[in-house]
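INTERNAL AUDIT FORM
Audit reference: QA-55
Scope: verify that the stored structure record matches its stored sequence.
Auditor: D.O.
Record contents follow.
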Amino acid sequence: MPHTIIAGIDRDLLAALDARAGLLTLRAILLRYQASGVTAAQVAGLLQDLRAATQDEALEDAILDALDMVTGWCGPELRVWDEAGGNRAS
C-alpha cells in the first residue's frame, strides 16, 4: 500500500477493492474513514496512489468507483463527504 491512513481500514479497503466488492461495501468502508475524522482529500490521495500502482484494469475500475464516492462524482445516495462540510476532495 503506498501510504497508510488508518492501517485496519486501509487493509479492509484494499481487500474490498481486490475482491471487486460492491459499491455499498466500498461506501461502508469509506464511511469508517469519515467517522474517524479522515478528510476526503486524504482518502482521495490514497486511492490515486493505489490507482497509479496498478496495472489491473478491473482493479482500476473498482478504485475509480471508490474515488467517485469520495469526490462526489456519484449520486447523492453514495456520496460520503459533502460540500457543506467543507471536507470534499478536489
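Auditor finding: record pair retrieved intact. The CA atoms of residues 2 and 53 lie 8 Å apart.
Action required: none
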